Every structure is written in C-alpha cells, then in structure tokens.
C-alpha cells in the first residue's frame, strides 16, 4: 500500500523515513556507486530532505519500506535547480507552484519480476494521484536515461528540457511529464492496479524495525 508522508504525519512515520534513508544509501551508494553522497552512518540524506519534502512510500503489511519517491515544490530548492541546472539546455529550469520535482525514486526487496514491475508503476500512479489532488500540471525530474522507457510504457507525455548529459555514474536527462487523469486511468488498466493507490494516514501499519536486516543484508 502507498502512503503519503508530509510534515504533518512525518513523526509517526519516523521509522519508515529512517529505513528509507538507509535503503537509498544501499541503492545509490553501495549498488550504483554514487560515492559523492556516501555517508559514514549509511543514511542517504541530502539538503533537499527538508520539511518541505513530501514522500510517497510503498509499505508491506508489517510497515516495512518496499519503495518510494520524493516530491519537492519547484518554487523552492530542488535537485534540478541547485545541482543539475546545467542539464537544462532548452528553456529554463521549472519554477512554478503547479510543477513539482520527483526524485529519489526506488523499489527495494526480493520481488519477482512481475511484482517489481507492478510496484514500479503503482508508485507512478500514486504520484499522479497526488498531483491531481493538488492541481499540479507537470512533474519535473532529472532521471537516468534508462528510466525513459518506463515512462514511455505508461504513455506519458514527455517534454525534454535538454540533451542527455553524462555525470560520473551514468547519463541523465532533464524533462517534464504532463499530469492528466487519462494517463492514470490507462496505467491502472494496463498494469492491473485497482485505484486509488495512495492513502494519507496519521499512522503507518504496525511497524517491525528491519534496519538491522537492511544493514546486514
């Protein structure tokens, strides 16, 4: 199940947020080699994980984190503006109350291929549901180019903001995605997802702290 976490319920989801930071470190530092963001405590947390940051977390029945992503308003500090502005070569970096940046998107755990693919798209559905609820027109992001086929599978309308750009660990591109209800309906039908996907709760499921397992895995 997908849960929306903001400043109002973050303290209740403190265990999941902490687990998310550690999973992000395992994925981005240990697996993908992003040494510049490595932390001695094994927590991948950056200058954009502030009170303004919003999170969508996929949790299992025990409250453990299986996937997630971060959303930031483009009217304030965000990854594209403050770190990857050089990747925007066509036009300007988005800065609008109706545009939110999506970043730190991940799926975690020993899932079968079909289950992993479904969760990947379920998270995107959750992002769309959030965007429509807030009246957001576009989602911006700096993504590795291997993500682009996933968006094309969902029939997203992509607006490229620049050419693919090399960085130390790969090749990325900046772009915007249009938000509309037809896209969400198509994704629900195509991937067999019964909506709505995203829920807001003041409390997570009964949580089993698996941080020791994550560190030792």
Question: First CA to last CA: what distance?
Answer: 23 Å
Uncertain runs are 210-217
Number of helices: 6
User: Helices and strands: which structural class?
Assistant: alpha+beta
Looking at the overall shape, the CATH architecture is 3-Layer(aba) Sandwich
Topology:
Elements: E1 2-5, H1 14-31, E2 54-59, E3 65-73, H2 79-82, E4 99-107, H3 113-134, E5 138-144, H4 148-153, E6 158-160, E7 165-167, E8 170-178, H5 181-190, E9 198-200, H6 211-216
Parallel strand pairs: 1-9, 4-5
Antiparallel strand pairs: 1-2, 2-3, 3-4, 5-8, 6-8, 7-8
Helix pairs in contact: 3-5
Task: Provide structural commentary.
With 217 residues, the protein is α+β, with helices and mostly antiparallel strands. The protein has a single domain (2-212), classed as Aminopeptidase (3-Layer(aba) Sandwich). The protein has helices at residues 14-31, 79-82, 113-134, 148-153, 181-190, 211-216; strands at residues 2-5, 54-59, 65-73, 99-107, 138-144, 158-160, 165-167, 170-178, 198-200. Strands 1, 2, 3, 4, 5, 6, 7, 8 and 9 form a 9-stranded mixed sheet that branches. A hairpin with a 5-residue loop joins strand 2 (54-59) and strand 3 (65-73). Helix 3 (113-134) runs antiparallel to helix 5 (181-190). The radius of gyration is 17 Å and the shape is globular.
Task: Sum this structure up briefly.
With 217 residues, this protein is an alpha+beta fold.
Describe this protein with a few key phrases.
217 residues, alpha+beta, Aminopeptidase, nine-stranded mixed beta sheet, 6 helices, 9 strands, 30% helix, 24% strand, globular, disordered C terminus
């Amino acid at each position: 199940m997908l849960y929306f976490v903001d400043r109002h319920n973050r303290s209740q989801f403190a265990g999941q947020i902490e687990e998310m930071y550690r999973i992000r470190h395992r994925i981005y530092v240990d697996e993908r080699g992003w040494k510049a963001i490595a932390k001695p405590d094994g927590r991948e947390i950056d200058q954009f994980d502030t009170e303004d940051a919003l999170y969508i977390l996929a949790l299992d029945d025990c409250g453990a984190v299986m996937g997630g992503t971060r959303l930031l308003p483009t009217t304030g500090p965000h990854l594209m503006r403050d770190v990857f502005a050089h990747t925007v070569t066509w036009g300007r970096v988005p800065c609008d109350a109706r545009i939110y940046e999506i970043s730190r998107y991940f799926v975690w755990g020993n899932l079968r291929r079909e289950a992993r693919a479904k969760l990947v798209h379920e998270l995107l559905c959750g992002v769309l549901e959030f965007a429509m609820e807030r009246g957001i027109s576009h989602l911006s992001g700096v993504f590795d180019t291997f993500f682009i086929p996933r968006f094309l599978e969902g029939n997203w309308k992509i607006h490229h903001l620049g050419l693919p750009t090399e960085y130390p660990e790969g090749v990325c591109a900046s772009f915007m995605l249009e938000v509309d209800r037809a896209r969400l309906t198509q994704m629900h039908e195509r991937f067999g997802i019964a909506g709505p996907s995203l829920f807001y709760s003041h409390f997570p499921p009964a949580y089993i702290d698996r941080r020791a397992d994550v560190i030792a895995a």
